[in-house]
Amino acid sequence: MSVLSIPFLLFAAAVTIIYYILPHRFQWMCLLAANLLFCACAGIRGCLVLLAVAFITYLAGLFLGREKEHYSAEKGTLSALSGAQKREKKCALKEEHGRRNRMILAAGLIPVIAVWAFFKWNADHGSIVMPIAVSYYTFIAVSYAADVEAGKFAPERNFFRYLTFLSFFPQMTEGPFTRYDRQKEELFSGHSFSFRAMTEGILRMLYGYCKKIILADSLWAVLGALLDSEQVSGLSSAVLVLLLPLQQYADFSGCMDIVIGFSQILGIRLPENFRSPIFSKSIDEVWRRWHVTLGAFCKDYVFYPVALGKRLNETAKKISVRHPLAGKNLPVMVSLFCVWTFMGIWHGFGAKYLLWGWMNLFFIALNVLLGAQYKRWRECLHIRQGNRGWSLFCMARTYILFGIFEMMSDGSAAGIGARRILSLVRPSAWSAEPLKAAFSSDGASSVCWPVCILLVILILVIDTAKEKKINVMDWMHRAPLPAKAALYVALFYLIVLFAPSGMNVLQGFGYARF
Question: Distance between CA atoms of 258 and 213, rounded to whole angstroms?
């Protein structure tokens, strides 16, 4: 059941009605039933994989909680001891507790990650279809077990409540990544109907559908044809660099608007996944604004565990004796390498995804290593950090770099991506033929480009307002009723009248394939 389909809208409406009819204490059960039905509609096999991942990590959480209770009880028996004997016994007990915790965590996470890797590898090689959302709920489950092991919260004792959290159906398409301790109150506290929440949620869903169905799919009608073409030219590569970031932003953030908007109708807040990435001035800032919840996952569960590792820091100290700067940067560089290798593999088991990750890594590492030098160069050139012209240059530079990275990852193979990048600097390769063919394709011929331009302007205005901390929803709430009604009708008719059609229009959401 696609989020873009009429059956989904009917399903969402039915869930909303039943959800608010039920007493608060039973609302989460309505969500659980809806989650399982939504997953079953996508395929019974995927539903079984979800249940297996949930059950394994649920058991891991229970065993980790029990181990913590045993540790507290055994530590209490040491109160009768004193002095050196007590310290020695306490250290031995702590070490044993840590070893058992790691064994339980590994026993829970290894099979779950192995299941994800099996489906990811085979789906990337075209032998099977990957179950819906497996890359999202698998690592949400990983974060749950890791947080229980770290003692951030007690394990959930009710399997069905945990399953409700893990399988929340609005986020089964493209996330966002959620954390159990931050989401449980939203899911299980119960909510009363709010007319304002409903109207704001519907408005955000309409905005998301406009971004996805009109802008993203219209751009894909051209970009998809260019990416499928065997001809590589500098002109077509330049168009890909300029339009791919916009297309992917409209596609992915449009999905987030639909998901977050519908959750808002139910009174449930999901974390925001985008923070106006077009205003990013560096590649590392892009990833603080784009797919925010995945970046937070990598920071908490990949970067910090590696950077704070005992052996790595001991090695860094030894290196620091002769090479202080190298020793200081070693933990950060190794951690960044692990993060971006993981990011590449999360997107796919292909060379193009690893290259995409390492291209991001290269520029982020440069910023870390040469940040102080960059500052001195700016001072020598008398460039102020807040200078508007410099800021616009940095944003344009970052946008182009991001477009080059996306052109690598969206191509059919790493070799073709490399050829497209090289074609940008070869004047002899600037042929217009691939671009003419793309614009004359069936999908492109049905696109209303003036409406697309208006949508781009609207997105820029709304993102600029967010960047200036203006609450657009509050402003809309204060608008006169006729103006609000006209906006709802206009967005609805935009979707109905100007959605493109044809063979080259993207089916579904781009990030759903990851």
Answer: 12
